[in-house]
Design a protein that fits this description.
Number of helices: 8
Largest sheet: none
Order of helices and strands: HHHHHHHH
């Protein structure tokens, strides 16, 4: 579990640096420049240390450079604030693959209610697209406090809530199917 949080922190470090600097100084050019430099330094450090870099690291670097450049050219932080939406859209697109979720389910669930697992996979894709659109909507306001709340509370809370609903629904569905098979 610790590794997951370290990877997430690594992937979002440049966005965190941007947000902290921008909130502290109000200087979009400084915050963006440091975020881009930090992302480049992060990749260089990993390469020097011989650590393997995954697709997400390179994708994150590319996004920081492209969106950061747009922010620098326009002096508008909304481009950098929209970055999480791209990740949500990409994940949502991957989740559109039929049955993607089956491999993550306990064997009992995958065997007893595979059709519901497939439906849940599509529901997760829809959630990712909705959260991505919400991120763009909030970023377009330019309100950093609202954006920080949305990214840290709404995005995470929606995923936890969806997971809880799915867990309860799957338990009920599996239990009902087992009871029906015995009867």
């Amino acid at each position: 579990m610790r590794d997951v949080f370290v990877r997430l922190l690594t992937d979002f470090l440049s966005a965190i640096v941007f947000l902290v600097l921008y909130l502290a100084t109000g200087n979009v050019v400084l915050a963006t420049s440091v975020a881009i430099a930090g992302a480049l330094a992060q990749v260089a450090y990993s390469r020097v240390k011989g650590k393997p870099l995954g697709f997400m690291t390179y994708a994150s670097l590319a996004l920081v450079i492209v969106l950061g450049s747009a922010t620098l050219l326009t002096n508008d932080p909304r481009f950098v604030l929209a970055k999480p939406s791209i990740a949500h859209f990409a994940i949502g697109a991957i989740m559109l693959k039929r049955g993607w979720m089956l491999r993550y389910m306990p064997p009992m669930v995958a065997e007893i209610i595979p059709e519901y697992v497939t439906i849940a996979g599509y529901a997760w894709a829809a959630l990712m697209f909705a959260l991505g659109l919400g991120t763009i909507a909030v970023a377009s306001t330019g309100d950093l406090k609202l954006w920080a709340f949305y990214v840290s509370v709404v995005l995470i809370g929606a995923k936890f809530a969806a997971f809880a609903v799915q867990y309860i629904a799957f338990r009920i569905l599996v239990t009902n199917r087992i009871r029906a098979a015995r009867a």
